[in-house]
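@channel anyone free to eyeball this complex?
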Amino acid sequence: MLIHLSQSDGVPIYLQIVNQIKYLVASARLEPGEELPAIRTLAEQLLVNPNTVARAYRELEQAGVVEMRRTAGTFVSATKSPLARKEKLRVLGERIDALLAEARQMDVPIDELIELLRQHHRTMSPQSNKE
Amino acid sequence: MKTINGPAMAIGYYLWLRTRWMLAALFPVAIIVPLVKQRVVIHLNGHEDYAGDLTPPYYPQIIMVAALIATVIIFVLLLSQFCYAGKDVSGRESAFPRWMMSLPIRSFSLVAWPMLYGSTVCALACLLIFYVLLPRQAFSRMPYWPLAAAAAFCAWLQAVSWMPFWWQLARMIAAVVCLIVVIGLGVLAQALEFQDWLVLIGYVGVLALALVAGTQGVSRARRGDGVRSPWSNGAVRKRIRPIDLRLTFRSASAALLWVEMRRNLIFTPFISLIGPVLIFGLCAFHAGHPSTFYVYGKMISSTMIMASIFIGSPLCCSLILNGTLAKFDTWLPDITVPNLLAVRPVTDSKIVAAKMKNVAITMAVTWLATYGLLILWAILPNSYERHYSVAGLVAANFTMRYLMWGLIVAIGLPLICWKFAVESLWVYLYGRRWLINLVGFGTITIWIALGTLAKFAPWREIVPFLPWLALMFVLAKGVIAVVIIRALVDRRLLSPKRLFGWSIVWLLIVLSLWLSVKAVLHPQLLGQWLLAAAVIWFVPANRLLLAPLALHANRHR
Amino acid sequence: MSALHPMIEPQASPPSRADGAHPAVEIRNVTRRFGQKMALDDVSLTLPTGTVLGLVGENGAGKTTLIRHVMGLLKAEQGLVRVFGLDPVLEPVKVLSQIGYLSEEPDLPGWMRVHELIRYIAAFYPTWDAQYASQLQQDFALDLSARIKHLSKGQRARAGLLCALAYRPDLLVLDEPSSGLDPIVRRDILSAIIRTIADEGRTVLFSSHLLSEVERVSDRIAMIKNGRIVFCDTTQAVRDAHTRITIRFDEPREQPPVMEGALMWEGRGREWTAVMSVPANEARSSASALGAQVVEQSALNLDEIFLARANRAGGQTP
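replying in thread with the prediction:
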């Protein structure tokens, strides 16, 4: 599993792991039901403290992206849990605020921004051409 | 800040920094000793000079011997400083400091300046030694070649230290060879009655050779070669047997002893025996020299000189080098406990026990080798004494009594060397340079003081008090033992069970030694209780107990 | 950086011998002087079992002195040092048999061969795992018949690491283990730390200048400056307690503004950037109290925190 950690931009490591796993799930490189590496294995692979990986996995579980089954491992969620949906929309709302603020500073109009969104969406999921 | 110009001044400054304390220590000797000589001799003899022979009073000689010992020690220290000593002397690599090798100075200058300073200072130190040793008239009639020999030896010692060698330990052998050659040349010249100026020119030639050899050595060291012999192909030799990592030591003590023996076993035998072996090789098959010498009015044959060199060399080496066996590695100058040993789960008592075992083994090896050499020398036909061997001489005068005494001495010498070595371990184990210097010079001072007091003291008045003094001494030893044992138990270095066991062993040794000496000795010479006190003094206890304490203080600072 | 490192399959390692009653390392009010210099000034530190503590500080701040106290190489002049509840000076056998030590100093004697070294060290530890040692030796590609003085610096570090790991110590103490080593060896050392901590109940104490490594691997971070502990907290708490904030004033200023907890100021005119030792919301409220507008605010990584802290005269943060 390809996870890239960068230490220069001030984002905590567990958050980077969380974000990247979310990205992998969202871009279908991690299929629903697929097993994630064990905490210890991922820690040794990335050379980070196992507690950091454990925290990332817990956050992912709270967000509903993965489910941790005792003694069996950690698996990508098959279904999207509705309880977490509000949480997801809240997080996305924060990202959108930041994106809009930057776009305003850069003087990019909202229509162009929406077009940019669609472009990236197409690149991410080439098989679904529906919007 | 003043700056220094030129390599000459810079090297001189560097050597000054390294040797200033030793040079300072020589000053008192140069000034005090002649004064003492003057005052004491005038006071006792009524006139200024003494004939220099062994007639009473003896203490001018005692003071002189003491000052001589101090000066010789300082001389040796100075030599080691001028050779830039500090690295593994037994190794193959040059001892020349790496940082100096990368300076933009020609090898010739790097070598010439230290040699110049070194040989000058050594010649002056040698002059001082003779000034201290000889009476004034003898001093003024002294030949010059010993000074030149000292200068030449210093230069050759520097050259030998700075040369890379193809084999381990070759450097030490080369150093002893240089010593013998340099001194031998002078003795030869004197015997053949060459003129003084001719001898001096000869020594200047020897100095020049040293300069050439030294420059060559440093150049080779700078290039990085000289450490591998030309016939070794430089490839790592493949082991035929695969290394099995499952082979282990039986215990931690076995591992400790293995390291001790690996680094500290060969040192004493090697140093003790280089001299005797070389002299044996030189003299055993050589003919035509006068066979007797007269020293202070007594006749000494060359046989006796040879025998005393063979016995004296290991004895002196064990006595002088005894403390260095306390180092983790006798070939290196560190006196601190290396991390490799300090972080192991092993008590200081175990480490000291391993050291004491190693000292026993090394003394056994030294003396067995010495006896072997002695027997070999005795068997060979001796060209000095008109072609009969020393063994034949001994066989002709054989008695059981001589054999018994011979055996006692043969077993006693290694034991005494072991005792002295093990008793001085604590000084080096403590790991502080000031203690080593203090004990070293302090011991010499105490012996001088005792020697002088012994001649001044009114013996007849003291004799009745001797038993009380002996008793006080035994009590003092006991009190000190209790203090040390308390400290050991506090630091968990000694368990009560072991304490009990070792006390019993010590008492048994004291008892058996007392009884056996009492059986052999005349009762009039020494009363039995005084003998007991002497035996208690002799058998080591306190200094052995101090050793783990000292190591503890070194390991946990 | 992808997962190309060939990892050893973790074997079932024996459970830790340390009981849970005592913290792995406890240092209380330790003071130490070397002549005039105060190397440690009333230092107190606790390392719970099962955590990784990263010790950071400038050269000469007191890290090595502290670590030597833990190993029993230095006796505490004042205060006490306890490792697994025992005094390392009085009980060297019990304490040191559970500690694996690696330091940046060239500890290994040059004349020994690698297999001799391994055999020597193995003799002291009843828990020595010969199979694990053999595995490590193959992974590190150590030449058993080579003399240590002929090994490169990285190989020497690996040999030292093997000797510190093979008996599966409960506490791993590393004193600037990565200094001067190439990235591959550094990786080996970091993996060793993580493998140790992943085994239940084992603890790691290490000091390093490579703050990125410290940040990745430590549960707690302690910073020493001039012999005093500046902070000792979990990694996340340390990050949360510091922030970088850029504020903008209406009028240009010549001097940087005075704000509580600011460590370092940069900027000129109307915009000023500060590295602050207070959490983000406190920084924002201080800025608005001054009447300035917050333009940008971001988190800091450990390197930047360290640099900012090192500039100031240190003291214990409340």
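from a first look: Chain C touches chain B through 39 residues (CB under 8 Å).
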